[in-house]
């Protein structure tokens, strides 16, 4: 009796060892972003993009990924709560946060506590500044401002520029400032600068009229697509048809339900990702994304978050991170990887400098017939 | 001069939307003595219903507006019955917090049903624009419709409260709930009716708001709701003509302030004016000063 008991125990122990090794190892990645509230659009895009990446990676069979989602409602205080919640649930690294203001707060805490963060979309340069564990997938705001001004001059798109930006938003304000500085440097004339403060329904008569009355032939819109769509309509109502030049926030304008694409005809935008590309990888991503998003087309937020999960996966595999690795160990291992590795994803070829900023080129597209066409083609 | 005229007309149009929303706040406050902070979100629901009717069911705009009005009326009555009526005797703070809760409930409900991505609202009344001064001044049909709707609603409401039995009952309840009840007026039904009218107006406001500014999101109603509440306080909360005047003035101050002072200060100006008015006339422009009996 005693002997059989021993054998049984041995068999049980052996079974557990084998079961353990057969079961692939799982790492836990937190995804923090606004899934409800006024910025839900962007947070949900990041969530869906991450889900697509997770499903693909887990289907490969190797290192498995478990995603921990927490909603920050685009609120700095709730973002800290979300961060605490995922850390308690055993997160080893973070894909997030989606928006800049919460990211500034959370990354400060994560820096102290040594948790590795890779934000898909918080593009302010302050997000990564002085934090060795904070990296970005998106390019930084000032890069886009400078790139836009240079591009307008190089391609002779306009000589008198009007700017409408959201002065309640870090993203918009930073691009505006870098654009303005670059425009002064290269001699691009800015004839009208107007602002607004809220991303919801706002009356844009005054701003558009100011651009029109000052004779602007190009309107630079470093803002998100929701207010931009209102601006396009207001301009049409005033019979005003300058060139509209948007940045990556303009991406998504065509995906709005019931949007009249003719309003956006000829609009130029900068984005690292085009859902209209016939690239095999993009086509497959768009299809899988629409399956999880309930039919909504992906924008660059979704693509950036997809890339974030893959980049974290690639680095984790290379560094040998497993489910047993503690978050602070993982942090040092990931910093080592990210500062040296190269990653090629949906939004381009990426390399990171020592600050955590990504180097990848923005690409310009023109909206023609309800689709993005690469500029100059 | 042409520019001034353009801003003025746009200001009146924006103000008309505020005014119609403000009517809902002011009527409910006047009669139930509560601030219905969920009112802005009823506007959003109204706009979504009209959007669905037009975009998914391909119904004509008039039917869509009527449908939105019916749904919002029902919604208003249900909200009042479920959330506010049980608190009739409770402290006003409890009702206020409940209203904020209802507001969040509606916003998140809309997020669940319609998603976060904005929808583009088709104008219910688009016949192009009117061009004056050789094309220098263009006024869109939505602007004219909004102003016209505002005038019609104002006349209809004034007649309703002044001439009909139900309207008189409403005024009686607003003056003295207890005495009105003693006179045989069904207070609960009158309050329900107020919510019904306020919510139907909210549906109209939602359609007009989104016809002029077409991006529709679950949070679409919140900022106009707050501005309209300001307009109601500005004009004297509880007063129907006050809400009208407050709304239109607020819209004009907002647009003209942005045009001639600074686009950065547009919203700040609106609230600065409110503060100044309240300093000199604490009851608002047309509000009745309430004497405290000691």
Brief write-up:
Chain A is α/β, with parallel strands linked by helices. In chain A, 45% of the residues lie in helices and 20% in strands.
Task: Describe this structure as you would to a colleague.
The complex is a heterodimer of chains A (about 375) and B (about 290). Chain A has about 375 residues and is α/β, with parallel strands linked by helices. Chain A folds into 2 domains: about 200 residues, Response regulator (Rossmann fold, 3-Layer(aba) Sandwich), CATH 3.40.50; about 130 residues, Response regulator (Rossmann fold), CATH 3.40.50. Chain A contains 11 helices and 15 strands. In chain A, the strands form 4 sheets. Chain A has a 5-stranded parallel beta sheet, with helices on both faces. A 4-stranded parallel beta sheet of chain A has the order 7-6-8-9, with helices on both faces. A 3-stranded antiparallel beta sheet of chain A has the order 10-14-15, with no helix packed on it. In chain A, helix 2 links the parallel strand 1 and strand 2. In chain A, helix 10 crosses helix 11. The radius of gyration of chain A is 23 Å and the shape is elongated. By secondary structure, chain B is mainly α. Chain B has a single domain, classed as Orthogonal Bundle (ABC transporter involved in vitamin B12 uptake, BtuC), CATH 1.10.3470. Chain B has a two-stranded antiparallel ribbon. In chain B, a hairpin with a 4-residue loop joins strand 2 and strand 3. The chains are: A alpha/beta (about 375), B mainly alpha (about 290). Chains A and B meet through helix 2, strand 7, helix 7 and helix 8 of A and helix 1, strand 1, helix 8, helix 9 and helix 10 of B.
Structural class of chain B: mainly alpha
| Low-pLDDT segments, ≥5 res of chain A | 16-22
Measured on Cα atoms, how large is the radius of gyration of chain B?
19 Å
How many separate structural domains of chain A?
A: 2
Compute the average pLDDT of chain B: 87
Report the count of strand segments of chain B. Answer: 4
How big a fraction of the residues of chain A is strand? 15-25%
State the CATH architecture of chain B.
Orthogonal Bundle
* CATH classification, class level of the largest domain in chain A: Alpha Beta
The helicity of chain B comes to: over 70%
Q: Based on the structure, what is the oligomeric state of the protein chains?
A: heterodimer
- In percent, how much strand structure appears in the residues of chain B? under 5%
Strand order of the biggest β-sheet of chain B: 1-4
Provide mean pLDDT of chain A, rounded. Answer: 89
Number of domains of chain B: 1
Global outline of chain A: elongated
* Structure summary, number of beta strands of chain A: 15
Largest interface (C-beta under 8 Å): A-B, 39 and 42 residues
